[in-house]
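testing teh design pipeline on a random one, pls ignore if ur not involved
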Protein backbone atom coordinates (compact mmCIF):
# COMPACT_ATOMS: atom_id res chain seq x y z
CA UNK A 1 0.00 0.00 0.00
CA UNK A 2 2.87 2.39 0.75
CA UNK A 3 4.16 1.75 -2.75
CA UNK A 4 0.80 2.70 -4.27
CA UNK A 5 0.53 5.87 -2.17
CA UNK A 6 4.05 6.95 -3.13
CA UNK A 7 3.45 6.23 -6.79
CA UNK A 8 0.11 8.08 -6.82
CA UNK A 9 1.65 11.16 -5.24
CA UNK A 10 3.98 11.11 -8.22
CA UNK A 11 0.99 10.85 -10.55
CA UNK A 12 -0.30 14.23 -9.41
CA UNK A 13 3.15 15.76 -9.86
CA UNK A 14 3.47 14.25 -13.32
CA UNK A 15 6.22 11.76 -12.40
CA UNK A 16 4.10 8.64 -12.19
CA UNK A 17 5.79 6.79 -15.06
CA UNK A 18 9.27 7.14 -13.57
CA UNK A 19 8.09 5.94 -10.19
CA UNK A 20 6.40 2.95 -11.74
CA UNK A 21 9.71 1.83 -13.18
CA UNK A 22 11.04 1.37 -9.65
CA UNK A 23 8.45 -1.34 -9.08
CA UNK A 24 10.57 -3.66 -11.21
CA UNK A 25 13.18 -3.63 -8.44
CA UNK A 26 10.70 -4.97 -5.87
CA UNK A 27 10.64 -8.66 -4.88
CA UNK A 28 8.83 -10.93 -7.29
CA UNK A 29 5.48 -10.74 -5.54
CA UNK A 30 2.52 -10.88 -8.01
CA UNK A 31 0.64 -8.04 -6.28
CA UNK A 32 3.68 -5.74 -6.69
CA UNK A 33 4.12 -6.38 -10.40
CA UNK A 34 4.33 -3.27 -12.55
CA UNK A 35 1.10 -4.10 -14.38
CA UNK A 36 -0.84 -4.59 -11.11
CA UNK A 37 0.41 -1.35 -9.57
CA UNK A 38 -0.36 0.52 -12.78
CA UNK A 39 -3.88 -0.93 -12.84
CA UNK A 40 -4.49 0.18 -9.27
CA UNK A 41 -3.27 3.67 -10.12
CA UNK A 42 -5.75 3.74 -12.99
CA UNK A 43 -8.59 2.72 -10.69
CA UNK A 44 -7.62 5.35 -8.10
CA UNK A 45 -7.43 8.02 -10.80
CA UNK A 46 -10.94 7.20 -12.02
CA UNK A 47 -12.36 6.91 -8.51
CA UNK A 48 -11.04 10.32 -7.45
CA UNK A 49 -12.87 11.92 -10.36
CA UNK A 50 -16.09 10.01 -9.65
CA UNK A 51 -16.02 11.12 -6.00
CA UNK A 52 -15.22 14.69 -7.06
CA UNK A 53 -18.19 14.60 -9.42
CA UNK A 54 -20.55 13.25 -6.75
CA UNK A 55 -19.53 14.81 -3.43
CA UNK A 56 -16.69 17.35 -3.73
CA UNK A 57 -18.96 20.39 -4.00
CA UNK A 58 -21.23 19.43 -1.09
CA UNK A 59 -18.28 18.32 1.07
CA UNK A 60 -16.39 21.59 0.55
CA UNK A 61 -19.54 23.61 1.30
CA UNK A 62 -20.05 21.79 4.59
CA UNK A 63 -16.38 22.22 5.53
CA UNK A 64 -16.53 25.94 4.73
CA UNK A 65 -19.59 26.39 6.96
CA UNK A 66 -17.88 24.42 9.73
CA UNK A 67 -14.74 26.59 9.55
CA UNK A 68 -16.94 29.66 10.07
CA UNK A 69 -17.86 28.18 13.46
CA UNK A 70 -14.25 27.72 14.56
CA UNK A 71 -11.35 29.98 15.49
CA UNK A 72 -10.24 29.80 11.85
CA UNK A 73 -13.32 31.69 10.66
CA UNK A 74 -11.14 34.40 9.12
CA UNK A 75 -9.84 31.90 6.51
CA UNK A 76 -13.40 31.06 5.51
CA UNK A 77 -14.34 34.74 5.41
CA UNK A 78 -11.41 35.56 3.12
CA UNK A 79 -12.35 32.72 0.78
CA UNK A 80 -15.99 33.87 0.65
CA UNK A 81 -14.80 37.41 -0.12
CA UNK A 82 -12.70 36.01 -2.97
CA UNK A 83 -15.71 33.95 -4.12
CA UNK A 84 -17.87 37.08 -4.37
CA UNK A 85 -15.14 38.95 -6.24
CA UNK A 86 -14.58 36.03 -8.63
CA UNK A 87 -18.25 35.05 -9.04
CA UNK A 88 -18.61 35.92 -12.73
CA UNK A 89 -15.34 34.36 -13.90
CA UNK A 90 -17.00 31.07 -14.97
CA UNK A 91 -19.38 33.04 -17.20
CA UNK A 92 -16.41 34.58 -19.01
CA UNK A 93 -14.75 31.38 -20.07
CA UNK A 94 -13.33 30.43 -16.69
CA UNK A 95 -9.70 30.13 -15.72
CA UNK A 96 -8.12 27.10 -17.38
CA UNK A 97 -4.78 25.71 -16.30
CA UNK A 98 -2.52 23.98 -18.81
CA UNK A 99 -0.71 22.38 -15.88
CA UNK A 100 -3.89 20.81 -14.48
CA UNK A 101 -5.09 19.67 -17.91
CA UNK A 102 -1.76 17.86 -18.39
CA UNK A 103 -1.68 16.07 -15.03
CA UNK A 104 -0.43 12.50 -15.34
CA UNK A 105 -3.49 11.39 -13.36
CA UNK A 106 -5.62 12.01 -16.45
CA UNK A 107 -3.48 9.66 -18.51
CA UNK A 108 -4.14 6.91 -15.98
CA UNK A 109 -7.82 7.89 -16.14
CA UNK A 110 -7.70 7.51 -19.94
CA UNK A 111 -5.93 4.16 -19.88
CA UNK A 112 -8.37 2.57 -17.42
CA UNK A 113 -11.12 2.19 -20.04
CA UNK A 114 -9.28 3.11 -22.38
CA UNK A 115 -10.67 6.33 -23.86
CA UNK A 116 -9.79 7.43 -27.41
CA UNK A 117 -10.46 10.58 -29.41
CA UNK A 118 -10.91 10.09 -33.16
CA UNK A 119 -10.53 13.01 -35.57
CA UNK A 120 -12.33 12.73 -38.91
CA UNK A 121 -11.94 16.28 -40.32
CA UNK A 122 -9.75 19.32 -39.78
CA UNK A 123 -11.16 22.31 -37.92
CA UNK A 124 -10.16 25.86 -38.86
CA UNK A 125 -8.80 28.09 -36.06
CA UNK A 126 -10.43 31.02 -37.83
CA UNK A 127 -13.90 29.66 -36.97
CA UNK A 128 -15.83 29.03 -33.77
CA UNK A 129 -17.66 25.77 -33.12
CA UNK A 130 -20.39 24.16 -31.09
CA UNK A 131 -19.75 20.46 -30.50
CA UNK A 132 -22.89 18.42 -29.81
CA UNK A 133 -21.79 15.53 -27.59
CA UNK A 134 -23.84 12.30 -27.53
CA UNK A 135 -24.80 10.31 -25.53
CA UNK A 136 -24.78 11.76 -22.02
CA UNK A 137 -24.12 8.54 -20.14
CA UNK A 138 -24.07 8.71 -16.33
CA UNK A 139 -21.11 11.07 -15.84
CA UNK A 140 -19.96 12.10 -19.34
CA UNK A 141 -16.67 10.29 -18.78
CA UNK A 142 -15.64 10.49 -22.44
CA UNK A 143 -16.54 14.18 -22.68
CA UNK A 144 -14.50 15.05 -19.60
CA UNK A 145 -11.41 13.03 -20.53
CA UNK A 146 -11.33 14.23 -24.14
CA UNK A 147 -12.25 17.89 -23.71
CA UNK A 148 -11.60 18.67 -20.02
CA UNK A 149 -8.04 17.31 -20.10
CA UNK A 150 -5.21 16.80 -22.58
CA UNK A 151 -5.04 13.04 -21.95
CA UNK A 152 -6.16 12.17 -25.49
CA UNK A 153 -4.31 15.07 -27.14
CA UNK A 154 -7.26 17.23 -28.20
CA UNK A 155 -5.04 20.33 -28.66
CA UNK A 156 -2.58 18.38 -30.81
CA UNK A 157 -5.28 16.77 -32.93
CA UNK A 158 -7.08 20.09 -33.41
CA UNK A 159 -4.32 22.73 -33.34
CA UNK A 160 -5.58 26.24 -32.67
CA UNK A 161 -8.87 25.00 -31.20
CA UNK A 162 -9.63 25.62 -27.52
CA UNK A 163 -12.39 23.35 -26.14
CA UNK A 164 -14.80 24.48 -23.42
CA UNK A 165 -16.81 21.63 -21.92
CA UNK A 166 -20.14 23.02 -20.70
CA UNK A 167 -21.80 21.58 -17.60
CA UNK A 168 -24.50 22.49 -15.05
CA UNK A 169 -24.23 26.08 -13.84
CA UNK A 170 -25.02 24.95 -10.29
CA UNK A 171 -21.60 23.28 -10.05
CA UNK A 172 -19.98 26.71 -10.19
CA UNK A 173 -21.77 27.84 -7.04
CA UNK A 174 -19.92 25.21 -5.02
CA UNK A 175 -16.66 26.31 -3.31
CA UNK A 176 -13.45 24.63 -4.52
CA UNK A 177 -15.37 22.49 -7.03
CA UNK A 178 -15.87 25.57 -9.22
CA UNK A 179 -12.13 26.24 -9.31
CA UNK A 180 -11.34 22.59 -9.98
CA UNK A 181 -13.73 22.56 -12.95
CA UNK A 182 -12.52 25.87 -14.34
CA UNK A 183 -8.91 24.67 -14.28
CA UNK A 184 -9.89 22.05 -16.85
CA UNK A 185 -11.54 24.57 -19.17
CA UNK A 186 -15.04 23.60 -18.03
CA UNK A 187 -17.73 26.31 -18.06
CA UNK A 188 -21.44 26.72 -17.19
CA UNK A 189 -23.91 25.62 -19.85
CA UNK A 190 -25.91 28.84 -19.90
CA UNK A 191 -26.65 31.42 -22.57
CA UNK A 192 -24.45 34.21 -21.16
CA UNK A 193 -21.35 32.01 -21.01
CA UNK A 194 -21.78 30.56 -24.50
CA UNK A 195 -22.47 34.03 -25.95
CA UNK A 196 -19.30 35.37 -24.34
CA UNK A 197 -17.08 32.56 -25.60
CA UNK A 198 -18.43 32.73 -29.14
CA UNK A 199 -18.50 36.52 -29.48
CA UNK A 200 -15.90 38.09 -27.15
CA UNK A 201 -13.17 35.49 -26.99
CA UNK A 202 -11.83 35.60 -30.53
CA UNK A 203 -11.90 32.55 -32.80
CA UNK A 204 -10.79 28.95 -32.46
CA UNK A 205 -13.22 28.26 -29.61
CA UNK A 206 -15.25 25.04 -29.38
CA UNK A 207 -18.08 24.89 -26.85
CA UNK A 208 -18.86 21.24 -26.09
CA UNK A 209 -22.52 20.80 -25.11
CA UNK A 210 -24.01 17.49 -24.00
CA UNK A 211 -27.28 18.11 -25.83
CA UNK A 212 -29.40 15.39 -24.22
CA UNK A 213 -28.74 16.61 -20.69
CA UNK A 214 -30.60 15.19 -17.70
CA UNK A 215 -33.38 13.63 -19.81
CA UNK A 216 -30.87 11.56 -21.75
CA UNK A 217 -29.05 10.43 -18.59
CA UNK A 218 -32.22 8.58 -17.53
CA UNK A 219 -32.08 6.40 -20.59
CA UNK A 220 -28.40 5.44 -20.86
CA UNK A 221 -28.49 1.68 -20.54
CA UNK A 222 -25.66 -0.58 -21.72
CA UNK A 223 -26.29 -1.81 -25.23
CA UNK A 224 -28.73 1.01 -26.00
CA UNK A 225 -27.92 3.83 -28.43
CA UNK A 226 -30.52 6.48 -27.67
CA UNK A 227 -30.13 10.27 -27.77
CA UNK A 228 -32.54 13.04 -26.79
CA UNK A 229 -32.34 15.51 -29.65
CA UNK A 230 -35.52 16.00 -31.71
CA UNK A 231 -36.84 18.88 -29.60
CA UNK A 232 -33.44 20.26 -28.58
CA UNK A 233 -32.95 23.20 -30.95
CA UNK A 234 -31.57 25.95 -28.74
CA UNK A 235 -27.94 25.10 -29.56
CA UNK A 236 -28.72 25.47 -33.28
CA UNK A 237 -30.20 28.94 -32.75
CA UNK A 238 -27.13 30.05 -30.80
CA UNK A 239 -24.88 28.67 -33.55
CA UNK A 240 -26.78 30.70 -36.16
CA UNK A 241 -26.66 33.90 -34.11
CA UNK A 242 -22.87 33.64 -33.82
CA UNK A 243 -22.06 31.91 -37.11
CA UNK A 244 -20.49 29.01 -35.19
CA UNK A 245 -20.17 25.74 -37.10
CA UNK A 246 -21.99 22.71 -35.71
CA UNK A 247 -19.97 19.54 -35.11
CA UNK A 248 -21.69 16.23 -34.17
CA UNK A 249 -19.73 14.09 -31.71
CA UNK A 250 -20.66 10.51 -30.82
CA UNK A 251 -19.00 8.58 -28.02
CA UNK A 252 -19.20 4.82 -28.55
CA UNK A 253 -19.15 2.97 -25.24
CA UNK A 254 -20.25 5.89 -23.04
CA UNK A 255 -23.39 4.02 -21.96
CA UNK A 256 -21.41 0.91 -21.02
CA UNK A 257 -19.52 2.60 -18.15
CA UNK A 258 -22.28 1.95 -15.60
CA UNK A 259 -25.41 -0.15 -15.19
CA UNK A 260 -28.49 1.88 -14.37
CA UNK A 261 -31.73 0.99 -12.63
CA UNK A 262 -34.40 2.28 -15.02
CA UNK A 263 -37.77 3.12 -13.47
CA UNK A 264 -40.90 2.59 -15.52
CA UNK A 265 -42.98 5.57 -16.58
CA UNK A 266 -45.57 6.30 -13.90
CA UNK A 267 -43.52 4.79 -11.06
CA UNK A 268 -42.57 6.79 -7.97
CA UNK A 269 -38.90 6.58 -8.93
CA UNK A 270 -39.51 8.14 -12.34
CA UNK A 271 -41.71 10.81 -10.76
CA UNK A 272 -38.90 11.84 -8.39
CA UNK A 273 -36.41 11.94 -11.27
CA UNK A 274 -38.70 14.12 -13.38
CA UNK A 275 -39.23 16.58 -10.52
CA UNK A 276 -35.50 16.88 -9.93
CA UNK A 277 -34.94 17.33 -13.65
CA UNK A 278 -37.55 20.12 -13.81
CA UNK A 279 -36.64 22.12 -10.72
CA UNK A 280 -32.98 21.32 -10.03
CA UNK A 281 -31.61 20.75 -13.53
CA UNK A 282 -30.34 17.21 -13.10
CA UNK A 283 -31.95 13.82 -12.60
CA UNK A 284 -30.73 11.55 -9.77
CA UNK A 285 -29.85 8.18 -11.31
CA UNK A 286 -29.64 4.87 -9.49
CA UNK A 287 -26.59 3.15 -10.91
CA UNK A 288 -23.62 0.99 -10.06
CA UNK A 289 -20.26 -0.01 -11.43
CA UNK A 290 -17.76 -2.47 -10.03
CA UNK A 291 -15.89 -2.59 -6.74
CA UNK A 292 -12.33 -1.39 -6.17
CA UNK A 293 -10.89 -4.85 -5.63
CA UNK A 294 -13.26 -6.96 -7.73
CA UNK A 295 -15.17 -6.49 -10.96
CA UNK A 296 -17.76 -8.93 -9.63
CA UNK A 297 -18.83 -6.73 -6.72
CA UNK A 298 -20.86 -3.53 -6.95
CA UNK A 299 -19.29 -0.13 -6.42
CA UNK A 300 -18.67 3.33 -7.86
CA UNK A 301 -15.78 2.38 -10.13
CA UNK A 302 -17.03 2.34 -13.75
CA UNK A 303 -16.64 -0.78 -15.84
CA UNK A 304 -13.48 -0.75 -17.93
CA UNK A 305 -15.16 -0.85 -21.32
CA UNK A 306 -13.54 1.10 -24.21
CA UNK A 307 -14.94 4.58 -24.90
CA UNK A 308 -14.22 5.96 -28.36
CA UNK A 309 -15.25 9.55 -29.06
CA UNK A 310 -15.57 10.40 -32.75
CA UNK A 311 -15.60 14.07 -33.80
CA UNK A 312 -17.58 14.35 -37.03
CA UNK A 313 -17.59 16.69 -40.00
CA UNK A 314 -18.40 20.34 -39.21
CA UNK A 315 -21.56 21.84 -40.67
CA UNK A 316 -20.86 25.37 -41.94
CA UNK A 317 -23.34 27.76 -40.34
CA UNK A 318 -23.91 31.34 -41.57
CA UNK A 319 -24.30 34.17 -39.11
CA UNK A 320 -27.87 35.38 -38.66
CA UNK A 321 -28.61 37.89 -35.93
CA UNK A 322 -32.30 36.99 -35.92
CA UNK A 323 -32.70 33.48 -37.37
CA UNK A 324 -36.24 32.42 -38.18
CA UNK A 325 -37.74 29.17 -36.94
CA UNK A 326 -37.47 27.87 -40.48
CA UNK A 327 -33.71 28.51 -40.45
CA UNK A 328 -33.34 26.79 -37.09
CA UNK A 329 -35.33 23.78 -38.28
CA UNK A 330 -33.26 23.53 -41.46
CA UNK A 331 -29.89 23.41 -39.69
CA UNK A 332 -31.29 21.19 -36.96
CA UNK A 333 -32.34 18.65 -39.60
CA UNK A 334 -28.89 18.90 -41.20
CA UNK A 335 -27.36 18.18 -37.81
CA UNK A 336 -29.61 15.14 -37.31
CA UNK A 337 -28.61 13.73 -40.69
CA UNK A 338 -24.91 14.35 -40.01
CA UNK A 339 -25.08 12.64 -36.60
CA UNK A 340 -26.89 9.65 -38.11
CA UNK A 341 -24.26 9.30 -40.84
CA UNK A 342 -21.48 9.52 -38.25
CA UNK A 343 -23.04 6.75 -36.17
CA UNK A 344 -23.68 4.47 -39.15
CA UNK A 345 -20.18 4.94 -40.56
CA UNK A 346 -18.25 4.13 -37.38
CA UNK A 347 -20.50 1.80 -35.37
CA UNK A 348 -18.98 -1.45 -36.66
CA UNK A 349 -15.45 -0.10 -36.18
CA UNK A 350 -15.99 0.46 -32.48
CA UNK A 351 -17.77 -2.59 -31.20
CA UNK A 352 -21.34 -2.35 -32.48
CA UNK A 353 -23.02 -4.70 -34.91
CA UNK A 354 -24.31 -3.68 -38.32
CA UNK A 355 -27.90 -4.21 -37.16
CA UNK A 356 -27.72 -1.72 -34.27
CA UNK A 357 -29.48 1.60 -34.86
CA UNK A 358 -29.35 5.07 -33.37
CA UNK A 359 -32.58 5.95 -31.61
CA UNK A 360 -33.23 9.70 -31.78
CA UNK A 361 -35.93 10.87 -29.37
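output:
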Amino acid sequence: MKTIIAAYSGVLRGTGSSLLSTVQDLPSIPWFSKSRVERHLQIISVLQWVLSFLILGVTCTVILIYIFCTDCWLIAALYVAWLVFDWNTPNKGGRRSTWVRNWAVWRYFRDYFPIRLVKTHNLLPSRNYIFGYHPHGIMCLGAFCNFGTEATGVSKKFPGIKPYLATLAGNFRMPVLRDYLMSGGICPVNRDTIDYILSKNGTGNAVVIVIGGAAESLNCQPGKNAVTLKQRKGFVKIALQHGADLVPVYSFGENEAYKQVVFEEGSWGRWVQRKFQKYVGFAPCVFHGCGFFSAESWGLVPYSNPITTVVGEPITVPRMEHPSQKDVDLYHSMYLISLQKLFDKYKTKFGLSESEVLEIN
